[in-house]
Design a protein that fits this description.
InterPro entries: Thioredoxin-like_sf. This protein is α+β, with helices and mostly antiparallel strands. It has helices spanning about 25-30, 50-55, 80-90, 100-110; strands spanning about 15-20, 40-45, 60-65, 70-75, 100. The chain has one domain: Glutaredoxin (3-Layer(aba) Sandwich), CATH 3.40.30. The chain contains 4 helices and 5 strands. A hairpin with a 4-residue loop joins strand 3 (about 60-65) and strand 4.
């Protein structure tokens, strides 16, 4: 699947929750290459002082899809597998919406 063919509305942000020390996170940068740069936001939770447990992060990298209305859809932990990631993003409509945790909302607001 070609990343440019993904049906991403312009207001959607793909948020990669990562940690600098994580080798999977670094490998995931290659997977995300080709996605619209304006839609992609890398959040190092340690740099931002966020708590993984509070955000529901069980492994790195974790990917969240956010909309301005405050709807969050977690893809959860992802592997550095381009086709698997792109297929998951293309199926976003099947994931249940969740409220964005307040600490992450503040980071997203500052980033926009």
């Amino acid at each position: 699947m070609n990343p440019s063919a993904l049906p991403l509305p312009p207001e959607v942000s793909i948020v990669v929750l990562c940690a600098e020390w994580c080798t999977q996170c670094r490998a995931f940068r290659e997977v995300a290459a080709g996605l619209p740069a304006e839609a992609l936001l890398w959040v190092d939770i340690e740099d931002e002082g966020l708590d993984a447990d509070e955000l529901g992060i069980t492994a790195f990298p974790s990917v969240a899809i956010c909309r301005p209305a405050g709807v969050l859809r977690y893809l959860g932990p992802v592997r550095a597998d381009r086709e698997g990631f792109l297929a998951a993003v293309a199926q976003l409509h099947r994931l249940p919406p969740r409220a964005i945790p307040e600490p992450l909302r503040a980071v997203l607001t500052d980033a926009r």
